[in-house]
Amino acid sequence: MTILLTGATLPDGSRSDLVIADGVIAEIGTGLRAESAQRIDADGLQALPGLVDLHTHLREPGFEQSETVLTGSRAAAAGGYTAVHAMANTSPVQDTAGVVEQVASLGEQHGYVTVRPVGAVTVGLAGERLSEIGAMAQSRAGVRVFSDDGHCVHDALLMRRALEYVTGFDGVVAQHAQEPRLTEGAQMNEGEVSSELGLAGWPAVAEEAIIARDVLLAEAAGARLHICHLSTAGSAELVRWAKARGVRVTAEVTPHHLLLTEELARSYDARYKVNPPLRRDEDVQALREALADGTIDAVATDHAPHPPESKECSWQEASFGMVGLESALSIVQQTMVDTGLLGWADVARVMSRTPAEIGRVPGYAEPFTVGNPAHLTLYDPSVRRTFGTGDLRGMSANSPYLGRELPGRVIATLHGGVATVLEGALRDPDEVARG
Amino acid sequence: MLTRTVLQQADVTRALTRIAHEILESNRGGSDLVLLGIPTRGVLLAERIAATLEGLEPGSGTVGALDVTMYRDDLRGQPTRTPQPTKVPPGGIDGKTVVLVDDVLYSGRTIRAALDALNDLGRPRAVRLAVLVDRGHRELPIRADFVGKNLPSAVAERINVTLKEIDGEDAVTIVGRHSSEETR
Amino acid sequence: MSAGLTHLLSVRDLDRETAIGILDIAEDMADVATRAVPKLPTLRGRTVANLFFEDSTRTRLSFEAAAKRLSADVITFSAKGSSVSKGESLKDTAQTIAAMGVDAVVIRHSASGAARVLADSNWIDAAVVNAGDGTHEHPTQGLLDVFTMRRRLHGAGSRGRDLDGVRVTIVGDILHSRVARSNVWLLRTLGAHVHLVAPRTLMPSGVDAWPVTTSSDLDAAIADAPDVLMMLRIQSERMHAAFFPHEREYTRQWGLSDARFARLGADTMVMHPGPMNRGLEISAMAADSDASVILDQVTSGVSIRMAVLYLVLSGGDE
């Protein structure tokens, strides 16, 4: 199916028409025509390359009551994403070629996004033995990102071996930095608020100490290291220092850590319970600056769906995590673009090109170039809406933004030339599967 | 809105003096009398009557306070009231003639609550009621034994009692559209 | 006095006027206990549910006594042997009680914030009284502690008074103590000076932002002659999580021994929220001395809880 997009504003600010045919960009210019093409009027809309999430939890296999590859893919497409890295803490864990191939092929069948399974670093995420990293890399899933996310690879020897081993497969170890002994039973950021609320604290040093160790290990191994969900000013400082030394480290930040602080915990509303926890305002400001100056390379959602009973209870009993695929672009607009810290070209870099580079996802290095895959999203930054459960497209509703006014809306998303979102609405699964 | 002063300072004093005499007369003297004022203004009135009694017959002016907040039947649907202290004089009330003292007698519910409260404090030989103003509109079969002034009134009217000690001057005023007849 | 309370979740929701009001009503309630018929009909026809997810016989009995003295009906759910212990959630338990029709819920739970979560939810349409939530607060304990202090200091002249200038020293596991938190904020509201003594490992990380002075030296604190010395219970589990080396060291450094007790000022009150570890944080002699108001604390508990139940259950329907 041929698509003619007219009047889109590209990331560099120029206005352009695009013809998309056979899954690739066929023509770029102005005043273009195409016969029997589906027309999309993109006047006033910001065109961005398809967003690539380095950090999503699709929950399938094993936790289908919270999300499935289908519902998670739909949520991603609704948020402007065309590729997501599915974290390994499924059941069974994504620690073998068989499981990662299954997840990748489910993604392919449904067709909304390219699902890139993340391989576990250790078997069963138990932190004892390396998993079959090579087999996963060479499988049809082509795994390049390895992470025990949810757990920290806290054993120094194991982390060193993992860093060294993945170099043979052009892989990267993505570390969930959380020293377990300093965070036993932790509920929220350790500090003034946790002291008042009587909730066990998760100190910043528990994240920073692991990062400090791991950048030195990566340096010694000459390996790539990626830090998941950076959450403190100190962590950003450490990454800045490491990069200055030439360490091949990259880092991601979640949208919620760019906006929300620990003050929200005062209500004891477990929608705000997340790992790593919401921190202080000083941390939020430092993370925004780090994303703006390139210390932090990418925005990643850490989309973590949970069923209602895991959040409609006391804080202590509640699960950690927030969904975030549908709201990510709006939050980035509010915190980074509308504040003048990033332009749309930068957004394209931190939400598409760089995450694709880190994850070695093909087809994202030169978007809006003739002959390259048509992964793109059309976004309207001018509207404002009250974010509600109607804006969530996954299975779970644990969003911290319900009831908040947010800017912007995704109007259309194309994944390999197939429209997954049109006129602001998701297309049906059978339509997308057919192409 | 019309405000009419029905009793002025001197009228109030005379009424209280008369009540004191009536109490002694009906009790045949001052023995075993205990005055319990209902807060807030009832307590002040009880103290004044007790002082007069003491002057007429030394030893007859035993006085205290009886708070009825916890015994009211209208706690829901009204703003929360702060209870005032209940002070029972050292001799107690068992076997005594208790004279309850309040400023205005209206529906009678306050006095019903006071009777319940007395019940939990002991067993008086008899209970009498002295009020400065009886404005009618009883909802319960309750009657005052000693009355300063009968003031038949319309429900829409408000009767205000002010006392020197807290309001600066003694007076009874009616606030409302109609003036009412005075009877004695 | 300001309008009655909707819920009692935290002492930080009480301003000075409201706090003193509660203490004064408790004075009246205490007087009721001395009468021939120690009951009031005030809450007749109302139902109070005790929801005790965490076991606590003394607090539960205290709330039961308070409700009954006000002629309320009481239903009790306690953790052991009920569906609560089989893992029924807070939400389901609350909705079950709501279906039975209750006017007030007294809740004790091991999770900080549980009372607030219950009050803010739409699972139940009743007044919520926090009887202890995790390590967050125990508001009625804070109230009965200050009530006890006020009575000891001013006796019959307590009504209407605050604790301006009174010096209170609290010793022990501040980090895990909901009693300490409730006391700190309430004492500050009433004008008292609070000094906390504990090893650094048992002080909350954000304590420097609290309106208190702190130190780890109990002997210096005693030499300062406080008006009140409150000892907190120490739990042996803390030893295993490396908060301090062993119990002997704890007692030596931070226990109210006979020797330290002897150095206390003649008028210093000794308090303890109970239950006590005699010989660990407080010596038997100190606990049983005339300076100890520990039993008064227990008596005050019923009066304070009567005052609180009256306040949350009276007042206009919103």
Comma- or semicolon-separated keywords:
heterotrimer; B: 184 residues; alpha/beta; Rossmann fold; five-stranded parallel β-sheet; three-stranded antiparallel β-sheet; 4 helices; C: alpha/beta; 2 domains; four-stranded parallel β-sheet; 12 helices
Structure, described:
The complex is a heterotrimer of chains A (435), B (184) and C (318). The longest helix of chain A is centred in the middle third of the chain and has 18 residues, at 204-221. Chain A starts with a strand and ends with a helix. Chain A is globular and about 65 Å long. Chain A has helices spanning 69-78, 97-110, 133-138, 156-166, 192-197, 204-221, 233-244, 281-292, 328-337, 344-358, 429-434, and strands spanning 3-9, 15-21, 24-29, 38-41, 46-49, 51-56, 81-86, 114-117, 145-146, 172-175, 188-189, 201-202, 225-227, 249-253, 298-299, 376-386, 405-415, 418-422, 425-426. Chain A is built from 11 helices and 19 strands. With 435 residues, chain A is α/β, with parallel strands linked by helices. In chain A, α1 (69-78) links the parallel β6 (51-56) and β7. With 184 residues, chain B is α/β, with parallel strands linked by helices. Chain B has one domain (10-71, 85-154): Rossmann fold. Chain B is 28% helix and 26% strand. Chain B contains 4 helices and 8 strands, in the order βαβαββαβββαβ. Chain B has helices spanning 9-27, 41-56, 109-121, 164-167; strands spanning 2-7, 33-37, 63-65, 97-105, 126-134, 146-150, 158-162, 171-176. The longest helix of chain B has 19 residues, at 9-27. The model of chain B has no long low-confidence stretch (mean pLDDT 91). Chain C has 2 domains: 11-137 and 301-314, Rossmann fold; 139-297, Rossmann fold. In chain C, strands 7-6-5-8-9 form a 5-stranded parallel sheet. Chain C is globular and about 55 Å long. Chains in contact: A-C, B-C. Chains B and C meet through α3 of B and α1 and α12 of C.
